[in-house]
From TrEMBL:
It is a multi-pass membrane protein. Gene3D superfamilies: MFS general substrate transporter like domains. The chain crosses the membrane at residues 12-38, 50-71, 140-164, 170-190, 215-241, 253-273, 285-311, 373-393. It comes from the Bacteria. It is found in: Cell membrane. Keywords: Cell membrane, Membrane, Transmembrane, Transmembrane helix, Transport. GO terms for molecular function: transmembrane transporter activity. This is Major facilitator superfamily (MFS) profile domain-containing protein. Residues 12-397 form the Major facilitator superfamily (MFS) profile domain. Pfam families: MFS_1 (PF07690). It comes from Secundilactobacillus malefermentans.
Amino acid sequence: MNASKPVQWKRNLWALWLGNFVTGAGSSMSLPFLPLFISEMENYSKAELSILSGVAFAVTFLSQAIVSPLWGKLADRTGRKPMLMRAAVGMTITATLTGLSPNVWILIALRLIQGAFSGYINNAYALMASEVPMNQSGRVMGTLTTGNVGGQLIGPIIGGFLAGILGYRIPFYCFGGLMLIASLSTLFFVKEDFHPTTSQDKSESPFAHIKNPSIVWTMIISSMLIQAATTSINPILSLFIKELMHGSGNVAFVSGVIAALPGIATIFTAPQLGALGDKIGPQKVLIVGLIFCGVVFFPMFFVTTVIQLGILRFLVGISDAALLPVTQTVMTLNTPSEVVSRIFSYNQSFQAIGSVIGPLLASAVASALDYRYVFLMTVLLVLINLVVVTRAYRKDRRTTQSMTK
């Protein structure tokens, strides 16, 4: 190994941390207020607003799910930095144009295009997974996660403040500006020592190179279910808060604060839980995180005040710190560097599918029943995920024991 490489991967980590931070800040600065932005475009009924908000959220991830494997295959041929630049520049343009949307259909079309060019955070994980020493992968993935989550912590508060004073279009312009910062940070500070493998059959499945494909597939499916659960409340969160506040007060600012609360817990606990996973095994952290997630989401059905909702949302942040970073770590430990981008692109694609399923299910539940029932639906998704993960690890343990006999 080149003596300068350990120094360079640390430099890349902090440059990508900044990119993740501004990406998280920009997206969270605008998305919590998307339903309120749509409600100002026309006088929609509660059911219409729920459905349109769900579609506007989900459509970005639908296009992302379709194109992610193609970008991942290209990344394994050309390197991860070009994919980071593609995502950062693409979101710079589409996020800015979204703020100019004259109606909900143009907004939905722009978010569809944005999804096709997104993927900065996933490519940041893939680049670091190809460079970081295996014995530090949990801590590094946790640290990288704090960049995204830290942005998600600050973004909604700033976005809510700006939206409450200047209108709901301004956060989208800020999103575009922040992605320009991510573009420049990546261009000038991220260095990738990329050497494409010429012997690899590009038509061959990347899973053929993995020592434990069933566990990797389980992590990919788990990521999808985690994403479905955590994004399911996005289309209705600000609308539910407006209902709890009886339509009075600065709903945008309060929604921003409530949306940011999970980030406070996650940013402090993700590195520690990642390091804990390095010591005791990531599967234990993942299973406990899923149980805790279900326990926290269930009481949200009964909340009657914004304060109660805020406390539970804070606790959700702890479970968040134990979920997606851990699945990324397991994939890193089981995936060789020559196919890591394709594996992570599959993961991004499945996460995007989760981000389609969650909001659309939530919108359907909210329009047919009530906002509160979305939280029960989320608990069901978490329980399904817990069953999938525990069964996979039991099967893997039995297989390992039979091979050692």
